[in-house]
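[Discussion] Sanity-checking designs against the backbone

I'm trying to build intuition for which residues belong where. Below is a structure token string of 300 positions. I'd appreciate it if someone posts a full sequence so I can compare it with mine line by line.
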């Protein structure tokens, strides 16, 4: 089923080329159907790339989805033209009186900062708090997962010895959780981060359940009793994202390690191989179905 998007969003044409059905607002108005309303707070620097990654995954649901992209007003965006944000993103104050079926909050390249030192931390925590009453389920990704766990449950983070980058093996720990329905007991997922989270803090909180983890990367999928999902990684990453990051960091002179289990023979000159895309698709579909659609009221 189609995604309902603003006509001005540039990724619409790219989605069409990939044979993904993206419906404009004008056409959607002529259909008598209750769309799921999904808000996305996109904190990643490359807005269009992240939009495309997320919209691909949301498009695999049989449900019609209306997507609203949110921007912060307390943060100065350095990598995105103001006109792009004005045309395609709503400031939070314009939507805070509304209700949404689901909310996705992405990662952000601010991991090495203390949470309170992030320039938009105050506005972000307002959104965290707002989501309790205005959103059926929130899906937090990577840094947002760490920040959400810290704000809501006091789960601490710690800096890793070096950047964790690559594709890692994970194990389902809570096979009864509907979020993992249809996912193999052992599966792969991408990571790209400088920090980890305290497993001890998670395990001692009775409201949190580790649904999947990894010996190498720690707790991966954490679910709370309110139906919110914290994914301590990047399931949305497409085939080439880790390659692009590796080239970027190399060009900056950061001397990054080659992403693990990503390039054949660990050779960056070879085409990367995917082993996580189907799992990511199923993860997002399960979230939309079991954590949003099956729970959210028909009328707000």
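Best answer:
Here's mine. Compare freely.
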């Amino acid at each position: 089923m189609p995604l309902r998007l603003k006509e001005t969003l540039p990724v619409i044409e790219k989605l069409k080329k990939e044979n993904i059905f993206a419906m404009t607002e004008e056409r959607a108005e002529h259909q008598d159907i209750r769309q799921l309303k999904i808000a996305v707070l996109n904190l990643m620097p490359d807005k269009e790339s992240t939009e495309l990654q997320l919209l691909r995954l949301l498009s695999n649901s049989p449900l019609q989805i209306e997507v609203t992209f949110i921007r912060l007003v307390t943060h100065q965006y350095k990598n995105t033209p103001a006109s792009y944000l004005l045309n395609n993103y709503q400031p939070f104050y314009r939507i805070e009186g509304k209700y949404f079926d689901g909310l996705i909050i992405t990662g952000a390249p601010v991991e090495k900062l203390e949470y309170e030192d992030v320039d938009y931390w105050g506005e972000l925590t307002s959104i965290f708090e707002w989501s309790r009453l205005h959103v059926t389920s929130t899906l937090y990704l990577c840094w947002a997962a760490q920040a959400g766990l810290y704000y809501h449950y006091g789960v601490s983070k710690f800096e890793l010895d070096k950047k964790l980058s690559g594709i890692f093996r994970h194990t389902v720990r809570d096979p009864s959780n509907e979020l993992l329905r249809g996912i193999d007991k052992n599966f792969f997922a991408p990571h790209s981060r400088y920090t980890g989270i305290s497993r001890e803090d998670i395990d001692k909180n009775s409201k949190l359940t580790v649904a999947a983890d990894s010996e190498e990367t720690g707790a991966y999928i954490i679910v709370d009793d309110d139906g919110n999902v914290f994914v301590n990684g990047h399931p949305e990453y497409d085939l080439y994202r880790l390659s692009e990051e590796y080239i970027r960091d190399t060009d900056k002179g950061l001397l990054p390690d080659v992403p693990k289990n990503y390039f054949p023979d660990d050779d960056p000159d070879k085409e990367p191989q995917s082993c996580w895309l189907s799992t990511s698709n199923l993860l997002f579909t399960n979230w939309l179905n079991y954590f949003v659609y099956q729970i959210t009221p028909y009328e707000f």
